[in-house]
Design a protein that fits this description.
Helix content is 42%, strand content 17%. By secondary structure, the protein is of the alpha/beta class. Helix 3 packs parallel to helix 4 and helix 8 runs parallel beside helix 9. The model has no long low-confidence stretch (mean pLDDT 91).
Length: 284
């Protein structure tokens, strides 16, 4: 199984990719405001790359519940200088040390980011009915993360029906639609969208059944880092959720996740590599 994102190619099975989160925002739920200045964001991203992140996910608009929407101009003002500087800093010889991902819902921002040096579009609104974003992904031959979310991102969870069956149908349909839009399967990563418009029970159910989506033969991305469903179980503050985040990541690796999106890169790399070493012995 291959994941292609412009000049990057990742062939699985291989050690899981760690995607480091870089929020260039004043209001993200976890670290809003810490890396709003381009210099701070680039330094943070390079530190993540040194710690083992092979993908750096740059976002300029918070997707937490209640966050104020950001227009295209402001989102580009936040992320494009970071992507340009980061792309230049990562380039050593003819090989870049990490792929840059743009975390956006807006086609115009995705285009500007790809022109600035990004290779992947991480689309939290991949459930939208139109394909403008897909045309851009096809044009640039970029990688594309299809994340499941209800309309409005944080709509109230619908408890009816089997969330695993619903997710399987959604992801299968998106793969067919992307193919018709000229986005090859090898460009696509699938993300069940843990925490987006889902109840605590649905989040846990998806985590327990993650391996069922392996039949779609595309890399699975798992984003659970510091998310609020952890607090629903333990009442923990954002900066107290690392142990539960690592537990989800390790179980995700055992279930076949190929990419782990994380705020705490160094700790996540160590936990994931230990899990992989144990699983390798188990398979012998």
């Amino acid at each position: 199984m291959i994941f292609r994102a412009r000049q990057f190619q990742f062939r699985f099975p291989r050690p899981a990719l760690i995607m480091g989160i870089v929020n260039v925002t004043p209001d993200s739920f976890s670290d809003g405001g810490q890396f709003l200045a381009p210099d701070a964001a680039v330094a943070h991203a390079l530190e993540m790359a040194a710690d083992g992140a092979e993908i750096l996910d740059i976002g300029g608009e918070s997707t937490r519940p209640g966050a104020r929407p950001v227009d295209e101009e402001e989102e580009c003002r936040r992320v494009i200088p970071v992507i340009k500087r980061l792309a230049a800093a990562l380039k050593k010889g003819k090989v870049s040390l990490a792929a840059i991902s743009i975390d956006t819902m807006k086609p115009a921002v995705a285009r500007a980011a790809l022109e600035a040096g990004a290779s992947i579009v991480n689309d939290v609104a991949a459930s939208r009915p139109n394909g403008d974003m897909w045309d851009i992904v096809s044009e640039f031959r970029a990688g594309y993360v299809v994340m499941h979310s209800p309309p409005g991102l944080h709509a109230r969870a619908n408890p009816k029906g089997d969330i695993v069956l619903q997710m399987g149908r959604f992801l299968s349909e998106r793969l067919r639609s992307l193919d018709r839009a000229g986005v090859a399967a090898e460009q696509v990563v699938l993300d069940p969208g843990i925490g987006f418009g889902k109840s605590l029970e649905q989040n846990l159910r998806l985590l327990a059944c993650l391996g069922r989506f392996a039949r779609l033969r595309r890399p699975l991305l798992l984003g659970v880092s510091r998310k609020s469903f952890i607090a629903k179980l333990f009442g923990t503050k954002v900066n107290e959720r690392l142990p539960a985040s690592l537990a989800c990541a390790i179980l995700g690796i055992e279930s076949g996740a190929c990419i782990i999106r994380a705020h705490d890169v160094s700790e996540t790399v160590q936990a994931v590599r230990m899990a992989e070493a144990i699983l390798a012995q188990k398979r012998r």
